[in-house]
Specification:
single chain; about 120 residues; mainly beta; seven-stranded mixed β-sheet; four-stranded antiparallel β-sheet
């Protein structure tokens, strides 16, 4: 599975950004696609994920502000980020998780920087 992320940038607090992640390769058995983020000196934490049947989960810190959705025709997952806060500043990573033969596999895209100024 290959993941190509894009859409980061610099935005003022209260603004919006949309991240995109195009998946290619052996994507047929992906359990979910998701977004993680990592701020300097902190761990990489999951922000949101969308399962193959469409259900979604969100971190408490972004509920009501971020929306994850997918375009199955183009094998692309998006993260719409509204009402951005300075604490949302981080490198955002696209993730794909596959569960095959009783083993789980994580695939990562390159990070995209999101910077929110106050």
């Amino acid at each position: 599975v290959q993941l190509q992320a894009s859409g980061g940038g610099l935005v003022q607090a209260g603004g919006s950004l949309r991240l995109s992640c195009a998946a290619s390769g052996s994507i047929g058995s992906i359990t979910y696609l998701g977004w993680y983020r990592q701020a300097p000196g902190k761990t990489r934490d999951r922000v949101a994920r969308i399962f193959s049947r469409g259900s979604t989960t969100y971190a408490d810190a972004v509920k009501g502000r971020f929306t994850i959705f997918r375009d199955n025709a183009n094998n692309t997952v998006y993260l719409q980020m509204n009402s951005l806060k300075p604490e949302d500043t981080a490198v955002y990573y696209c993730n794909a998780y596959k569960y095959e033969l009783n083993l789980g596999y994580d695939y990562w895209g390159q990070g995209t920087q999101v910077t929110v100024s106050s």
